[in-house]
Amino acid sequence: TPHRAKASAPGIDRDATPFFLDASNDLVIEYLPVCQSEDSPPQYQPWAYSDYMTRFGRQYYHHFKEEPAAD
Predict the structure, then answer these.
(1) What is the rounded CA–CA span in Å between residue 4 and residue 7?
(2) Per residue in 8-52, pLDDT tens?
(3) What pLDDT does residue 41 have?
(4) Are 9 and 67 in contact (CB under 8 A)?
(5) How far apart are CA 56 and CA 27, in angstroms?
(6) Could you give the C-alpha distances from 44 to 19, 30, 32, 40, in angstroms and in order?
(7) pLDDT at position 70, please?
(8) Rounded CA gap, 57 and 39, in Å?
(9) Are 30 and 42 in contact (CB under 8 A)?
(10) Cβ within 8 Å of residue 42, ≥6 positions away
(11) 9-43: string of b/e by CB count within 10 Å (b at 16+)?
(12) pTM (2 decimals)?
């Protein structure tokens, strides 16, 4: 993942502790029921985590940009 964090001031060391989390590929990402109503419907359609990760990979990693060859 591209790292875009910058130190708050020149000459000051910055420490970072990475945390990585992945969901199941079949997980559906969608609005929580308590975050939507008739007056405030979801702004985005639900989508699978695997589709999200494919889009993310193609956006940020060159080797993901090409579609795999069909068998």
Answers:
(1) 10
(2) 777 777 777 878 888 998 999 999 999 999 999 999 999 999 999
(3) 93
(4) no
(5) 16
(6) 27, 8, 12, 12
(7) 63
(8) 35
(9) yes
(10) 30, 31, 36
(11) eeeeeeeeeeeeeeeeeeeeeeeeeeeeeeeeeee
(12) 0.55
Look up residue 58 and give its two tokens: 């193609």
According to DSSP, the residues that pair with 48 across neighbouring strands are: 28
Two structure tokens written together for 42: 């979801």
Residue with tokens 């990693």: 61
Residue-wise pLDDT tens digits, 47-71:
999 999 998 888 888 777 766 666 6
Q: How far apart are CA 33 and CA 36, in angstroms?
A: 6
